[in-house]
Amino acid sequence: MAGRKKDSVILSWEGKRNILPGAQSGSAKKIKTSEIVFPAGKTQTEGTFRPRILNRLIHGDNLDAISSLLNEGYGEKAALIYIDPPFASNADYYRKITVGGSKKTFTLKRLSFKDRYKKGDYLTMLYPRLMLMKRLLKEDGLIFVHCDWRMNSHLRLILDEVFGEENFLNEIAWNYGGRGAKIISRQFPRNHDIIYVYGRTKKARLKKICIEKKIPVKEARAFGYKLDGKGRFFKTAPRGDYSDASIKKFRKEGRIYETRNGNIRIKYFLERTGGMVMDKKIVGDVWDDIPDSMHSPLKERTDYKTQKPELLLKRIIESATGEGDLVCDFFSGSGTTGVVAEKLKRRWLLCEINRSGIDTARARLIREGGSVFSIEKINGSGGENRLAALTLKRPEVRNISGKKAEVTVAIKNYRAPKDRALENMSKKDFPLLLDYWTIDWNHDGKVFKGQWHSLRGNGKKAATVKKEATAVLDKGKRKIAVRAVDIFGNETEKIIELVCG
Predict the structure, then answer these.
(1) Exposure of 487 by Cβ count < 10 A (0-12 exposed, 13-18 middle, 19+ buried)?
(2) Which end of the chain, C or N, has fewer beta carbons within 10 A?
(3) What per-residue confidence (pLDDT) applies to 266?
(4) CA–CA gap between residue 490 and residue 483 (Å, rounded)
């Protein structure tokens, strides 16, 4: 291999030689905008205003997506790429959906994704994607690759090859705690994942992250903290490289502690608040203070099996980026990376091949009420299911002024041909079958603008969608578009031509 270092080790497998040098195996297919989404509080019902879209949710194969993004000029634009690819777990992952009718409740399973890779196929899938992702990163950009015990040793060698051993920064052990599993014979319980961190070049740097530890005053001395004559708790550290002049300065400030052997240590005083001693600790490469999503706050849970906690992504994003930077996730699943990036005022770009993940992420991002974003599709991913039937009532129009009218749009019925029992239920309780529906009050016939939304919600937040929506519009002729997606991922759309007033 040209340019290979004498002491380097590379991983080989059947099929690797068929991957073109430079990983140009992704085809630059056109990414088509399916919808511009105006989250809660961002609704715009009039005019042909097209916002500047900074955030993107792409539905399709990430190999095609990354190739297309490079053609669009995204090369060396990303400050951070986080990926949580399949783990080669030899399992299928489903979301449980509870549908409650007036007489009976059903629990359905919707496939999120299949993870049935053999080792060689897995590496053949991920290798070219990593090579293309490298081209998206800024010179000082960083990539975080999330994995577990199944493929971590293989991925380490591939990442060394793609990004260079010299650009390896950290191997983070995320110890998410026990899940109540029984101790398996022959081994200790497996309670951690691995996250590899690489820079594109040696210019990549991680920011120091501190966490605050709270210790009751009564227990502080038992934890090794010391107390001085003024009632102040402190911890100590070795003198290190401090000069004699610095030590003299610290002594005047009362910050020198001498051991029984006469060794000099530096005092660091701790804050006391409400009966607690507060100690700031720099985060290392073992993260044992963030529980998994099973133990995340209820409002955060989506029942998406491989969802990662927001606190984990918050730490990653804060350690690698600043406000306004572009954060990418090409195995975005339930959309946690986008949700956290939005909260931290970063730009985000997500890609997910499975419709279940897109629908889950969409709902979370709308409820977050942040920036306007686009939903885009590659190769017709997740197209309309023509067997589903959406029926609307005749719109109601009420004049309220010389120039304005109040318009109400309502769903009359929705039929999803998936299950006979559910078909019968939908005759009376059709809203139970809808995951969400959205309205473009001023459709231009080009791009759907989701300006009003009613969401079923995820996890414990799941509810029934509303049956009708009302908006105050300018009088005159217009088109109103209605789009609905059911709990199986079927998408349908209706367009109403209407004269207001």
Answers:
(1) buried
(2) N
(3) 94
(4) 11
- Report whether pLDDT(22) > 70: no
**How far is it, in rounded angstroms, from Cα 35 to Cα 86?**
28
Q: Are 176 and 290 in contact (CB under 8 A)?
A: yes
**Under 8 Å between Cβ of 373 and 55:** yes
In angstroms, rounded to a whole number, what is the distance separating the alpha carbons of residues 499 and 431?
28
Structure tokens that stand for 428 in this block? 């009376």
- Residue 362 identity (one-letter amino acid): R
- Strands (E) across 1-88 are located at 31-37, 55-59, 78-83
In order of their start, the domains of the chain are: 16-87+117-207+284-378 (3.40.50.150), 210-282 (no CATH), 389-500 (2.60.40)
- Determine the average pLDDT of the residues in 135-152: 97
Residues 6+ apart with CB under 8 A from 50: 36, 447
Where do the DSSP E strands lie in 16-123?
31-37, 55-59, 78-83, 91-100, 105-115
CB 483 within 8 A of CB 453: no
Are 248 and 322 within 8 A, CB to CB?
A: no
Taken as a whole, the chain contains a residue count of: 501
Distances (CA, A) of 225 to 26, 211, 217, 237, 240: 57, 17, 10, 12, 20
223 — phi, psi (to 5°)?
-85, 0
| C-alpha separations of 206 from 275, 322, 427 in Å | 34, 11, 56
The answer to whether residue 301 scores a pLDDT higher than 50 is yes
Q: Which of 42-51, 211-220, 310-319, 392-401 has the highest mean pLDDT?
A: 310-319
State the residue for tokens 């600790």. Answer: 281
> What is the model's pLDDT at position 366?
93
3-state secondary structure of 308: coil
Q: What is the mean pLDDT of residues 281-309?
A: 90
> Alpha-carbon distance 408 to 396, whole Å?
5
Give residue 420's identity as a one-letter amino acid code: R
Please state, in angstroms and as integers, the Cα–Cα distance from residue 403 to each residue in 55, 171, 361, 441, 473, following that order.
35, 63, 38, 16, 8
CA–CA distance, 136 with 69 (Å, rounded to integer): 8
Tell me the average pLDDT across 401-418.
87
Q: Which two tokens stand for residue 281?
A: 């600790």
Measured distance CA(476)–CA(499) in Å, rounded: 5
9: three-class secondary structure by DSSP: coil
